[in-house]
Amino acid sequence: MSAIDTRIEGQRPAGISLEEWTIRVDLAAAYRLVDRYGWSELAGNHISARVPGPEHHFLINPHGMLYDQITASSLVKIDCDGRIVGESQYPVNPAGFVIHSAIHMGQPHLTCVLHSHAPGGVAVSCMKEGLLPLSQHSLILMGWLAYHDYEGVALNEEERTRIVRDLGECRLLILRNHGLLTVGESVGEAFVWMHRLEKACKWQISTLSAGRELNPLSDVVQKRSVEQGLAMFRKGGPYACGREWPSLQEELRRAGSDHWQ
Amino acid sequence: MKNNLSPVTAKPLPQGVSPEEWSVRVDLAAAYRLTHRFGMSDLIYTHISARVPGPEHHFLINPYGLLFDEIDASSLIKIDLDGNVVHNPNPELSFNPAGFTIHSAVHAARPEAHCVMHTHTRSGMGVAALKCGLLPLSQVAMRFHGKVAYHDYEGPAFNLDERARLIADLGPERFLFLRNHGILVACATVAEAFNAMYWLERACQVQMDVLACNAEINMPPEGVPEIVAHSYLPETRRPYGVLEWPAMLRMLDRHDGSYRE
After folding, report:
1. Smallest CA–CA separation between B102 and chain A, in Å?
2. Domains in chain B with CATH codes
3. What value does the mean pLDDT of chain A take?
4. Of B1, B210, B237, which has the smallest distance from its Cβ to A90's Cβ?
5. Residue A142 DSSP symbol
6. DSSP bridge pairs for B60
7. Is ipTM over 0.90?
8. Are A60 and A92 in contact (CB under 8 A)?
9. pTM of the predicted model, to two decimals?
10. Residue A153: per-residue pLDDT
11. Chain A residues closer than 8 Å to B231 by CB
């Protein structure tokens, strides 16, 4: 165990397993990083993670807390209906968690569901054609990308079914007229997917804003790039999202973050 | 959850300032600092005004000449509805009477709106200059759908006639686009006004990004924007901004708590 791990382990409160504490530290780091990278919207939206074990318990942000204040111990444990498990000194906002719980319950192998209103993503979500095959950066994501039509704020039972169906085996979901959602078998995987998707969206906005003729890519090149993306990012593949996670945590450590408390 | 982590001020309150007034002063100074931090300030220009609790119809406003990140609770100038100065700790700095014309008109017509906030942001001015006004493209914009009023531009000098037209244009709404000029919100508290302005600004940013791309827009299904707007009304779920406010103050306190002075 490295020095940083020892420090984090030393903060673990009694009654929380090492497995749960590790997820808590990862999830708190994700909130901090989402804020640092400019994808947060005050206290809005959720990033959720499954607590290891058979109980179907999840961790979520305390309601009203800004992302740059969230710590491992302030995250709230809830069940799939958004009810607080055990005791918490903080409330939760179950409203947006409906999307998260639908995916967590529909795909139990996924650890993390990250939803953001990152600026590039929201703008692309309003465009009929969605993410365009304009660049390598967007093409290699397209095999992993799905869309879900906007139905309004409150998700009912039927929409939960549709959102799980729309996501399918993909890792990236554009919520039309709303924002972005990524999932991962680890918190780091979901975060890095979001980073890649938001970057592709921002590039698209820059490109289209220029108002000039676009340089088209042939169908052959597009198809090959999508297939390459599927191979690159597959589990265990050379670019599997999440490899960057230790470095991202180191970035937080250098910035003096106290998310691990 | 401890809802207010504000340090108790050890210093006595300035003479003639009630604890209730001081509390509004701290909130209003915080709103100026936050407006600056979130990139919505315009040097020394524009105003955020708040009503002093009590029967006197007194208001607090920024001294003309200070940047928003210099404003603190004690530097705010107290004036009446006619623009007479009631208290000014720095007589070398006065307030901008032309700018207060808009604010005083709104305060007089809408006594329940204790805080009036006006900005000149790039995206807010951008949408204010568009004939179509704010479009319900994204979920963040849909919350304002049908709740936004528009006032036509007549030039920088406000005469008394224009005040009447501005009030008639605002009607019962809380959000006003000053065409070819900027945006204005009138809300029950400083916290709600800042929050509304933050979201309105986000909605304008998304719209400007989307329109700049000149791509086909995916409009939400008919009827959905109305449902979204209803669900965000203060009386439907909660008055947005109140829950977030202590966290906003903590964010300022971590960086620079001098707004409380």
Report:
1. 29
2. 19-255 (3.40.225.10)
3. 93
4. B1
5. H
6. B50, B78
7. no
8. yes
9. 0.88
10. 80
11. 152-154
Q: Is A241 exposed, middle or buried (0-12, 13-18, 19+ CB in 10 A)?
A: buried
- The answer for B 210-249 residues in CB contact with A (under 8 A) is 210, 212-221, 224, 227-228, 231-232, 237, 243-244, 246-248
What type of residue is A98?
A: V
- Residues of A in Cβ contact (< 8 Å) with B195: 42
The closest alpha carbon to A77, from A98, A52, A41, belongs to A52
Measured in angstroms, the CA of A76 and the nearest CA of chain B are apart by: 12
A134: contact with B, CB 8 A cutoff: no
**Could you tell me the domains of chain A?**
11-253 (3.40.225.10)
Q: Nearest-CA distance from A202 to chain B in Å?
A: 10
Q: What is the dihedral sign for C-alpha A112, A20, A247, A43?
A: positive
Residue A133 to residue B105: CA distance in whole angstroms: 51
B151-202 pLDDT, tens digit per residue, is 999 887 667 788 999 999 999 999 999 999 999 999 999 999 999 999 999 9
